[in-house]
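Task card 7
Instruction: Convert sequence to C-alpha cells.
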Amino acid sequence: MFGGGHTRRAIGLLGGSFDPAHAGHLHISKAALRIFGLSEVWWLMSPGNPLKSQGPAEFDRRVAAAHKVINHPRIRVSTFERDFGTRHTAETLALLTGRAPRQRFVWLMGADNLVQFHRWQDWEDILHTVPVGVFARPGDRQAALHAPAAQVYRHARLRGRKARLLAQAEAPAWAFVNLAMRRESSTAIRASGAWVR
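Output:
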C-alpha cells in the first residue's frame, strides 16, 4: 500500500467507522482528489470511535460494505488502524508518517468533525503532523469556522485559491472547502433499518 520510488505522492486520509460507508463518503473523496490534486484517497477504517458510546458493526462487514460503495480506482479501503492497533487519529498519523516518509498525507474530514475537533485526543498533534482538508456539510459552515480549533489555528488556514495547494503545504495548514454535499449519513442509514449492527 505504501508504494516505492522517489516521488512523494499526495494521499488523502478519510477516517471513520464507516458504519456503513455511503455515497457521501465517495463524494467527498472524489472532490478531494480533484480539488487538492491527490494521487489517492484511503478510507481509514476505524475499529471503533472513542467518542461514541456504542461500538460499530463488525469490522470485516464494514470493510466489505465499503468496497461495494467504492467505484473509483484511486480510492481504497485501509485496515491500517486495526492491523497496527492504533486507537486515536494522532497515534495513527504518527505511525503512518513514520512508516511512509516518502508520501505526503492530508487528513480529510467533514465540517461537523471540525466543530468538535478540539475534543479529539492530541488534536493539536494532528494539525502539526499533516495538512487538513475540511469539507462543509449542509448547516455546518458557520459552526465549524467558529469552532475552537478553527479559531486557534486561523493563521494556518489556506483561503481561496491557496486551498488547492494544501497537499504541498507544511503543517500546520488547513483549508475549508464549500462543497455541494450529499445528504446521506451513516446515522440516517442505520435509523432507516437499511444497516443493522
